[in-house]
Amino acid sequence: MPLEVKPLGFNFDALEPHIDAKTMEIHHGNHYATYVNNYNDAVKKQPELEGKPLHEVLASNCAMVKDEIKGVVRNNGGGAHNHALFWEILNPAGKPGAEPAGKLGDAIKSTFGGFAQFKEKFEAAGKTRFGSGWAWLVKKGDKLDVLSTANQDSPIMEGAFPVIGLDVWEHAYYLKYQNRRPDYIAAWWNVVNWKVADDRFGRAK
């Protein structure tokens, strides 16, 4: 069964003023949809992959993928997986200053010393990612960590479970923020769905 484009779940303007409607429309309808379509086209050349869960393909670091399509599968499969998670953890009812609670909140405090320290480390991962990529809060084994990946690489390629991810490709922010990536990152905190993040943390393997 082909990979499907995951619905956004809210209107394009629901994240205003932090993320603008036009960016969301282009990001979801063009960029994300293209990753999904390109992935589906690529795996037609290796039919045994067509029904396999995407996370299993990526978790093997694409070792099961034929060399002739490996680059396309890695880039577009990673893009499809990363963006599906990105839409999941965006909250149109987000509140400025909200912080994680529950088990995730406790784990962040014990790992990083507090939410402010975690935020600083996470923002640095996003700000210093050269070119295109992502910043992540991941669970690896029993531990939380912050890391950054290039392009559309996913933490699951490195054996880590992504709890939250921030897209720092220019297509995610340039219409509103131009080259001011730090401003975009600062605004993004206002639309993080910490309940979903806590749920993801609870089922992390």
Q: What secondary-structure arrangement, pairings included, does this model have?
A:
Elements (H helix, E strand, L loop, with lengths): L20 H23 L10 H6 L7 H22 L13 H11 L2 H13 L5 E8 L2 E8 L10 E7 L6 H4 L3 H8 L5 H10 L2
Antiparallel strand pairs: 1-2, 1-3
Shape: globular
Tell me the number of strands. 3
CATH class designation of the largest domain: Alpha Beta
Proportion of residues in β-strands: 5-15%
Q: State the helix count.
A: 8
Overall pLDDT: 94
Number of domains: 2
* Largest sheet descriptor: 3 strands, antiparallel
**Low-pLDDT ranges:** none
Instruction: Give the quaternary arrangement of the chains.
Output: single chain
Strands of the biggest beta sheet: in what spatial order? 2-1-3
Question: Could you say which structural class the secondary elements and strand pairing correspond to?
Answer: mainly alpha
Taken in chain order, the helices and strands follow as: HHHHHEEEHHH
Any guess at the CATH architecture of the largest domain?
3-Layer(bab) Sandwich
CATH topology of the largest domain: minor pseudopilin epsh fold
